[in-house]
């Protein structure tokens, strides 16, 4: 968190003049994923995150519903006004978080820096958001092994063994609700459905393979919130994007082209 960042300025003041090209890229990309996901990917979800992290989970269901209804009035990327020289909120109380897209963007930018130094083989890992450039030095593909979200304590699991991926010049990112929670009972995860105001629990984990890490990052969150059916429909509609989805019942669903990347 940086209180001097452009996102922080925008959240404090409701507007940002002369945004940097990088910030504008992130906002415009966020609007693209908002649109193609039907509003399930939404960077204006920050007020809901503040609400839940501030202790909403301690309240009764009635109080939760009332406060969520109030907060939903300032949620929605359609309430963002964006131009080349200004980003502005249409409603007071709005705030953005770029957590679901900025890390992937940073990985892509880091990879571009490596390319400027004529580096042709590299693996960048930013907390699970990965980009593999080229092959390994021995000419083989980079391999990525998925962690079974139901097997953190080496206990028996109902989820089928997950595949190991092998690829070159591709990005992979995973969204899951099995690490970060707002409440001690681990019932309120950090991934919110911007349309309902509640954390989403249709999926346990979503892994996306795409050409850029920003796309993989944003789509992993989008599909996670959308759920396995609508989410997979979105993936199948996009070029050069594959997915592995684990739903709340432990069922694993793979996109039609995923087999190409399974070792």
TrEMBL record:
<dbReference type="InterPro" id="IPR003374">
    <property type="entry name" value="ApbE-like_sf"/>
</dbReference>
<dbReference type="Pfam" id="PF02424">
    <property type="entry name" value="ApbE"/>
</dbReference>
<keyword id="KW-0274">FAD</keyword>
<keyword id="KW-0808">Transferase</keyword>
<dbReference type="GO" id="GO:0046872">
    <property type="term" value="F:metal ion binding"/>
</dbReference>
<keyword id="KW-0460">Magnesium</keyword>
<dbReference type="GO" id="GO:0016740">
    <property type="term" value="F:transferase activity"/>
</dbReference>
<dbReference type="InterPro" id="IPR024932">
    <property type="entry name" value="ApbE"/>
</dbReference>
<keyword id="KW-0479">Metal-binding</keyword>
<keyword id="KW-0285">Flavoprotein</keyword>
<protein>
    <recommendedName>
        <fullName>FAD:protein FMN transferase</fullName>
        <ecNumber>2.7.1.180</ecNumber>
    </recommendedName>
</protein>
């Amino acid at each position: 968190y940086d209180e001097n960042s452009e996102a922080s300025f925008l959240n404090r003041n409701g507007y940002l003049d002369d945004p940097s090209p990088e910030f504008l890229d992130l906002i415009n990309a966020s609007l693209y994923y908002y649109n193609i996901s039907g509003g399930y990917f939404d960077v204006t979800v920050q007020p809901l995150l503040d609400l839940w992290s501030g202790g909403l989970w301690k309240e009764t269901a009635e109080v939760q519903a009332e406060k969520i209804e109030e907060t939903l009035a300032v949620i929605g990327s359609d309430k963002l006004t964006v131009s080349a020289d200004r980003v502005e909120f249409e409603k007071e109380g709005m705030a953005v978080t770029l957590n679901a897209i900025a890390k992937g963007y940073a990985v892509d930018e880091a990879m571009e820096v490596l390319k400027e130094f004529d580096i042709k083989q590299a693996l960048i890992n930013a907390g699970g958001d990965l980009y593999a450039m080229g092959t390994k030095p021995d000419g083989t593909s980079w391999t990525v092994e998925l962690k079974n979200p139901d097997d953190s304590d080496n206990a028996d699991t109902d989820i089928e063994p997950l595949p190991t991926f092998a690829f070159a010049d591709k990005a992979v990112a995973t969204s899951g609700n099995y690490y970060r929670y707002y409440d001690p009972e681990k019932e309120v995860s950090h991934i919110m459905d911007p349309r309902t105001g509640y954390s989403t629990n249709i999926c346990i984990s979503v892994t996306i393979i795409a050409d850029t890490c920003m796309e993989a990052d944003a789509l992993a969150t989008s599909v996670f919130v959308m759920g396995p059916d609508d989410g997979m429909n979105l993936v199948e509609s996009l070029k050069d994007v594959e997915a592995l989805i684990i739903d709340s019942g432990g069922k694993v669903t793979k996109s039609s082209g995923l087999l190409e990347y399974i070792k």
